[in-house]
Amino acid sequence: MTTKTDTPEAPIVTVPGMDSDRAVKTISILQERLAALLDLQLTLKHIHWNVVGVNFISVHEFLDPQVDSVREMSDDVAERIATLGGSPLGTPGAITKFRSWDDYDLNRAPTVRHLSALDAVYGGVIESHRTAQAELADVDPVTEDMLIGQLRDLEQYQWFVRAHLQDATGDVVFRNSEQ
Q: Can you tell me whether residue 51 is helix, strand or coil?
């Protein structure tokens, strides 16, 4: 969540057809998305390093393509901020400044616990991405389109995670990360 002091300055130059106010709003929304994606990327790698137990290797290896994809998403968001005349903030301090969620709290833990916690992480990122996409619908359709494409991938990754947690009926049986 941004505050008045977090609002970017009006860009000197933005893309043709976009006024400064719309650029500032888009950049502000994207900065929050950048922090979320950078945090997700680091969280996925953290899980990759700390997952143990049944199906360790399959979970360990299935996370790397997600890390790579989320890294590309964060790069796309940062480059869109720069294209609009802003300065993308990708430092650890910026991630913690712009995030409104708690840090991932599992370290070395069984696969089912990590996957259950990751399901919740994906849920939060997807929900906030959808909110940002809706806010951008009337502000910048190019940025909205970028977020829609990212949502498609993020939702698929969450489906992959949930498939590990479901029973034959499709019910997510390991939603409680204490199991």
A: strand
172 forms beta bridges with 166
- 3-class DSSP assignment, residue 110: strand
Predicted TM-score of the model (pTM): 0.90
Q: How many residues does the chain have?
A: 179
Percent of the chain that is helix, strand, coil (3-state, to 5):
65, 5, 30
Place of tokens 């970017």: 8
pLDDT digits (tens, 9 = 90+) for 102-147: 899 999 999 999 999 999 999 999 999 999 999 999 999 999 999 9
Q: Give yes or no for a contact between 143 and 136, defined as CB atoms under 8 angstroms apart.
A: yes
Query: 177 burial class (0-12, 13-18, 19+ CB within 10 angstroms)?
Result: middle
